[in-house]
Design a protein that fits this description.
Chain lengths: 450, 313
């Protein structure tokens, strides 16, 4: 009677060794001790204290002190100066340096979508990055300094989300001839422009216009995403009015310049609630080429398992990568986020080895939460970075065996989807090294399901 | 059992704005930290009764801290306020600029306690620690603690550092209510037996409404010494998120390759958390064990319940 998803494949487990590399990222952090490894990184350690096992690395680029890695007008990997893989910087004489985070492998940057986070000073960019990717609690962002301290922030390299966030300290001067903004925009998948809605936003709108038009000239494929931010301070009416006004003005400006083909998307966001995660989820989803496949898999999975709603989450950022096609209700999404928090928090306390080694989230990670209204929340590990979170009625959950079996197939299918992507990356790497590597041929195709 | 209820008077004092009402609202009234920004100053004394563990009623006296009220407490209301006090909680704002005045009020308070309720237990909370730079916190707290101890003599006081923005709040309040639970030794002994029988690494008992840890037993050393208050905080937050969906949290199972933890409703006044590390013990077995122990602990909670300890199988 029970339909199942896909067919169990006779593949063996050591497949998983490859899957660990699935998204081509570095490992989870080094363990709990390294969070304390940097004695003088001061108050910014705050959030790593709370989740020491996910974000153990504290990065301090010696550019600030020793200038060892100085190399004008060149993009550099910062590894040379002892900063962990993933940091790149551009140094220009007399200007603040630009640092950016690259979660991916340097060899494969051109295949990774890149997200830029831009906006006026104090608009909330660093706060967004801290809250979404570093689990800082919103009230702690009050202590963030607006100086150019980007090079001292902690790195998260444990997210599925395979993109880069560029936080530009200060303003960029597009007319500065030595500044190669073309190079920056060329590889960009989405440009998030943050506008402080509690402030006068005329200057921000002018800046938005300039940035968008420049970027569009270089790369017409960029998604332009406007975050109307800090809306926690506004009443509901005021929110709608502000969004309408900003929307109108921004599009008028574009129309005046004859650029109405540029499409801007608007989001109302605040770090004090889940709206920022929701907005980020949408931005990221647009950049995931496998999205239709993932949604399809989720639809098949839930309809065969008696599940009401399922989300595929990036565990670290709580961005949902995909969900089935039933409508998303904000409260449901929020509860999923909170569940992930609980699961990771408890696993950090009890789920590490005695010496603190291991990771809180691993292959066996599972959680079941029962509510009094016959709802069951079910979380399971899918990949190192992804978790499936489902809403199930209690009576359907009685057939947990079926759900688990279908999940097994679902998980395999997801791995295959990403394996294709991995193989592409791998072969590129292999070419780069002028080396042939056995088994790395990019000939995989997504498996058609049922 | 309202007539068998045991009432205990708890005084909350400290200067205005030090955070008394905020703490009480978070622990006993399901506020989240951010909501406390909307609280106004407390006028005179606000009384609240909190049923705790069924037969224990905490009678909280939240004493507004503005000068005029304070003066009043020590003069015209003196007997009324300081009589029959079981616990005095004195809250100090760590950022206060009037340290001397704070200490002066504190000493007046101790004097009144010594006269009217000499057996009262005294807790000093050095509060709003989040406002102090992290590397300074230990130092500042040590200093304050020393001063307070000295000033309290001949009375003894227990000092805690607290902030509504992290789990330290739960640590302080757990320790406070622990002092008030009538049959706590018996509870602990039974919890130990239970833990050993089911081969748990650790068992925690939470009060159901506040999620404060009221008893625990560990069979195996655990790394994190702050885990009790962290878990109180984590689960309490989650409970509040569930209530947004008009649902309430019932039970939870979390595992990875190193552990399995079960949190479940236990008696009518408690939740239990059982932590296992032996992967060969299936979830179902642990869940049945928890269910079987329920009845026994239910009996223990009643004041005149049987005084024998847990014997299973
Ligand atoms: N930063 C920080 N602020 C806090 C903390 N606890 C309370 N507050 C804030 O302090 C302010 C005053 O808190 P209340 O709880 O009203 O103070 P109170 O002691 O009841 O004052 P009275 O009723 O006048 O005696 C509120 O805005 C709280 O949000 C804390 O731990 N850290
Ligand atoms: N009310 C409110 N304040 C915010 C929000 N996001 C950021 N802020 C505050 O805005 C200020 C500037 O933020 P910051 O991230 O340093 O801005 P940046 O210069 O764009 O990096 C900080 O004090 C933040 O606490 C929000 O969603 N709501
Ligand atoms: Mg910034
Ligand atoms: Mg008050």
């Amino acid at each position: 009677m029970s339909q199942v998803l896909g067919k169990p494949q006779p593949e063996d487990e050591d497949d998983d060794e490859e899957e660990d590399e699935l998204v081509g990222l570095a490992d989870y952090g080094d363990g709990p001790d390294s969070s304390d490894a940097d004695p003088d990184s001061g108050a910014e350690e705050g959030e790593s204290r709370k989740r020491p096992f996910i974000f153990p690395r504290s990065v301090k680029c010696c550019w600030c002190t020793a200038h060892k890695c100085r190399s004008p007008d060149l993009w550099n990997t910062s590894r040379a100066c002892g900063v962990p893989r993933g940091w790149w910087y551009l140094f220009r004489e007399g200007q603040s340096p630009i640092f950016f985070l690259d979660f991916s492998d340097p060899f494969s940057t051109e295949v990774k979508p890149r997200i830029l986070l831009m906006g006026l000073r104090r608009s909330g960019k660093s706060s967004i990055q801290k809250v979404v990717f570093h689990k800082m609690s919103p009230n702690e962002t009050l202590f963030l300094e607006s100086t150019n301290k980007i090079c001292r922030e902690d790195v998260s390299n444990s997210s599925f989300v395979n993109f880069q966030i560029w936080d530009f300290p200060g303003q960029i001067d597009f007319f500065d001839p030595t500044f190669d903004y073309e190079m920056i925009f060329r590889g960009t998948g989405a440009l998030i422009f943050v506008i402080d809605s509690q402030d006068d936003y005329m200057e921000a709108l002018a800046r938005l216009h300039l940035t968008v038009t420049r970027a569009y000239k270089v790369n017409t494929d960029i998604n332009f995403e406007v975050f109307i931010h800090k809306v926690d301070g506004l009443s509901d009416d005021h929110k709608i009015e502000t969004q309408r006004d900003i929307h109108q003005r921004a599009n008028d400006d574009l129309a005046d310049a004859g650029l109405e083909k540029i499409h801007l998307s608007f989001y109302l966001t605040s770090i004090y609630d889940h709206s920022i995660f929701e907005a980020f989820s949408k931005v990221v989803q647009k950049l995931i080429p496998q999205l239709p496949t993932l949604e399809n898999l989720l639809n098949i999975f839930i309809s065969n398992s008696g599940i009401e709603k399922a989300f595929l989450f990036d565990v670290v950022s709580k961005i949902y990568i995909a969900t089935d096609s039933t409508p998303v209700d904000m409260q449901t999404y929020e509860l999923c986020c909170d569940m992930i928090d609980v699961v990771i928090d408890i696993s950090c306390i009890y789920g590490l080895k005695e010496d603190g080694a291991g990771t809180p989230y691993d292959k066996e990670s599972t959680a079941i939460i029962k509510l009094n209204n016959t709802t069951v929340l079910y979380l399971k590990e899918v990949t190192k970075f992804l978790a499936l979170v489902c809403f199930v009625r209690e009576e359907s959950f009685e057939r947990k065996g079926l759900i688990d079996y279908n999940f097994h197939c679902f998980r395999k299918a997801i791995h295959e989807v990403f394996e294709v992507r991995m193989k592409v990356v791998k072969s590129r790497k292999a070419q780069n090294r002028l080396q042939k590597k056995k088994g790395a041929t990019p000939n995989g195709t997504p498996r058609v399901l049922l | 059992m309202p007539n068998t209820a045991m009432k205990k008077k708890v005084l909350l004092m400290g200067k205005s704005g030090s955070g008394k009402t905020s703490m009480r609202s978070i622990i006993f009234a399901n506020y989240i930290a951010r909501d406390t920004r909307r609280l106004g100053a407390t006028i005179d004394v606000e009384h609240s009764h909190v049923r705790f563990l069924g037969n224990l009623v905490l009678n909280l006296w939240d004493c507004g801290g503005q000068d005029t009220f304070m003066e009043n407490y020590f003069t015209s209301q003196r007997d009324n306020i300081f009589r029959n006090v079981e616990v005095l909680i004195y809250v100090f704002d760590v950022e206060s600029r009037e340290l001397e005045k704070d200490m002066h009020y504190y000493q007046s308070c101790l004097e009144a306690i010594l006269q009217n309720s000499p057996d009262a237990k005294i807790f000093c909370l050095v509060h709003k620690m989040d406002l102090v730079q992290e590397d300074q916190r230990d130092l500042i707290f040590k200093e304050r603690e020393e001063d307070l101890r000295r000033l309290s003599r001949p009375l003894e006081c227990a000092c805690f550092r607290t902030s509504i923005w992290d789990e330290t709040l739960y640590k302080a309040w757990s320790s406070i209510v622990y002092q008030l639970i009538p049959n706590v030794q018996q509870l602990e002994m039974n919890l130990r037996n239970f833990a050993q029988i089911i081969e748990a690494d650790e068992v925690l008992l939470f009060e159901r409404a506040t999620f404060l840890v009221i008893s625990h037993y560990q069979c195996r050393e655990q790394r994190d010494v702050h885990r009790f208050e962290k878990i109180s905080n984590i689960i309490k937050q989650f409970k509040l998120s569930c209530s947004k969906l008009a649902a309430s949290f019932q039970s939870m199972e979390v595992r990875n390759s190193n552990f399995a933890a079960f949190i479940d409703i236990f008696t009518s006044n408690t939740y239990v958390m059982v932590v296992m590390s032996d992967p060969s013990i299936p979830s179902a077995a642990t869940l049945i064990n928890i269910r079987n122990a329920r009845k026994h602990f239910e009996k223990l909670e009643r004041v005149d319940g049987p005084k024998h300890s847990l014997l299973m199988r």
